[in-house]
Design a protein that fits this description.
The chain has 251 residues and is α+β, with helices and mostly antiparallel strands. 42% of the residues lie in helices and 20% in strands. It is built from seven helices and ten strands. The strands form three sheets. It has a five-stranded antiparallel β-sheet, with helices on one face. It has a three-stranded antiparallel β-sheet with strand order 6-8-9. It is globular and about 90 Å long. The N and C termini lie far apart (81 Å).
């Protein structure tokens, strides 16, 4: 690469991705696509806002999970100012897919597995974060991987019971809306989601481990029943072939 090749090219604002305090951009850094997150212009000189974005970088820089957007740098970008730089996660938000009724069975399966895994990682690392919403869940273009964006801004010694309870309730709300939009018939996941959002808080799962266990156990139980039915049919067939009523082999 020649010395006169611009470091930053094809910078484009993505208004649909903007957050409460930030503008979001897509760009190429040395020819590689990345995402940029910077303070809104009216906050650029605000000391508290500058401290906030620096703290978010510090909190999220060491996070490493396949379903959470990774931060890889924090630097000045010409025309934008100080930016958090993340991997490229361009794609469709869950909100868009729900609104356009474009959810598939694969999307639902990733809500069952990848989203729960990401939430567990965030809670295990005691990351205080904004409420999980469909707008903050991205399915990447082409591959369709689930990625959480805007996942945390502070790390504490421990999350409060209210923090973890909110995640479980929001998870259930998201799953129920996704199932309704997609028309996907998943009785197991629907049951779990309805318990997450029960009007009686005592019926909700007490923590993310209980939620994950409920999903895994119900899935395992369904598989177990399927295997039992299959084996029962095979036993019946073998018994029939051993009975006097079985057809005789040709002489």
């Amino acid at each position: 690469m020649s010395d006169d090749t611009p470091k930053w090219t094809e910078i484009e604002h993505l208004p649909a991705w903007d957050e409460e305090f930030y503008h979001v951009y897509t760009a190429k850094k040395h020819g590689k696509w990345v995402m940029l997150k910077t303070l809104r212009p009216e906050l650029a000189d605000n000391a508290d806002a500058r401290a906030m974005i620096e703290k978010e970088f510090d909190v999220r820089y060491n996070l490493a999970h396949p379903n959470i957007v990774m931060i890889n740098d924090f630097e000045d970008v010409p025309g934008l100012g100080r930016c958090i730089i993340t991997d490229d996660v361009y794609g469709d938000s869950l909100r868009k897919l729900i609104d356009e009724h474009k959810l598939t069975a694969d999307h639902i399966e990733k809500l069952r597995t990848s989203l729960v895994s990401a939430l567990k990682y965030i809670q295990t690392n005691h990351i205080v974060h904004h409420p999980i919403r469909p707008e903050r869940i991205i399915f990447t273009e082409n591959i369709g991987n689930l990625k959480l964006i805007d996942v945390g801004f502070e790390q504490t010694p421990a999350l409060t019971p209210q923090d973890t309870a909110e995640d479980i309730f929001n998870y259930g709300t998201i799953v129920l809306e996704a199932l309704e939009s997609s028309g996907h018939n998943d009785a197991v996941l629907r049951h779990v989601a309805e318990r997450c959002t029960s009007a009686d808080p005592r019926r909700r799962y007490k923590d993310i481990d209980s939620l994950q266990l409920a999903i895994d156990n119900r899935k395992s139980k369904r598989l177990y029943i399927t295997v039992i039915i299959f084996l029962s049919i095979m036993v019946a067939i073998l018994a029939w072939f051993s009975s006097p009523y079985a057809p005789k082999p040709p002489m």
